[in-house]
Amino acid sequence: MRARLTERQNQVYEYVRTYVREHRRTPTLKEIGDGLAIRSTNGVHKLVSALVQKGYLRRRPNEARGLALVDVDEDPYAPSEGPPILPLISRTRSDEPDRLRRRPNGALYVDERLLRKPGGAADADDCLLARAGDDGMVGDGIRKGDLLVVEETDWKDLANGETVAVLFGEALVARRYDFANGRLHFRPADRTYAEEVYPPGDPACHVIGRVLAIMRTL
Amino acid sequence: MRARLTERQNQVYEYVRTYVREHRRTPTLKEIGDGLAIRSTNGVHKLVSALVQKGYLRRRPNEARGLALVDVDEDPYAPSEGPPILPLISRTRSDEPDRLRRRPNGALYVDERLLRKPGGAADADDCLLARAGDDGMVGDGIRKGDLLVVEETDWKDLANGETVAVLFGEALVARRYDFANGRLHFRPADRTYAEEVYPPGDPACHVIGRVLAIMRTL
DNA sequence: GCAGAAAGTGAAAATCGTTTCACCCTGCCC
DNA sequence: GGGCAGGGTGAAACGATTTTCACTTTCTGC
Hints:
The first copy, chain A, is about 15% helix and about 30% strand. Chain A has helices spanning about 5-25, 30-35, 40-55, and strands at about 55-60, 65-70, 85-90, 105-110, 115, 120, 125-130, 145-150, 165-170, 170-180, 185, 195-200, 205-215. The longest helix of chain A has 17 residues, at about 5-25.
């Protein structure tokens, strides 16, 4: 149960909900202020902060119209049902992995039955698609250009021997993961590619997560 | 009828539509640029202007994230159609191919973007899923157990060199197809498997169709 | 070859929108 | 009477986004 709202906070919340229904986007702070006769955007900002704190709204920092209703039911664009839509990412750099999800290059429906990991089902919200950037895993039947279904994971949660998607600088590739002697080892399945070894935290290497499945169009 | 779009304009339009579906808001010019590898926001701005001109997008001048899809806004509650569900078949015999679709062993959502054939998009109603029954195509990155996305096709509609799904008796496998000297040739990509040759109409061999894509869980 | 359309670069200018800073007011509780 | 939470004012700093300017490239039809 979420925390109770004060009267003013509730007015803000209702205003946002109504605005979203009518405009199909969230209002700016100024618009909220205009609607509720608050002259200072800062006044609105504080009220909104309370709403965020109490879990009614979400905020994308520093973004224009960066508010979002937490209850997706209110979201006019929310898809009725069906399989998850995973973002397809590309053109990434290991020194800004945060941008992975923010600059998707497309999106595909992926059946949930493909989102299986050793322990069970993976959360679709943690998954994304990426293209294998080289032929280093042809020996395992993964070829350059294949779509990798990746569950975003910290490298600490990986088990030895799992197939992972990893960023080496700008190259996003699949490799077999092993942790040994305090270092991360990434082994290709093909002899023509070299094994890569990095200490944890090396900015030149960013583990995106475990590969759950692959898809390829012929 | 709205004016035709150039290829690039269409890419922008599709990018915006996809972005909206996934993010529930419209992208910024910069995000479009990132997605389509356009470095200058002005390049995007011009493309978007063309889309606005032709009536595909609307623009709220000088507003952050001020783009809007005309279609969505005109008909906000239009039902969004989901991806097709393809039947997964198994336990088949070449002498009763009609039963292929009758005894599905399950079904998966498959994104339409995976249903592409050389000429264009395949009709989802003609497609099905089947598991590769052997390792005869490992050389092409198809392994036993992989899910094959197959477009049901008569063998006469196949071109030489296409990868096909074919039933040899009870075994459903992928092979490369060639028609030569009045006979159907099915070549494996792996030397340990033998090439199979049949005359048209042989009951021991039934071509299911062309393989459009593969999917594999690790 | 030249004109025009489509697409793009790079950078600057103009706006829009969010965040922060300093300070004020009211009601309430101890 | 002090302290604190909720609500506000105004202004300034910042960052995100759009818009405009000047110039380039590629392709296509006349």
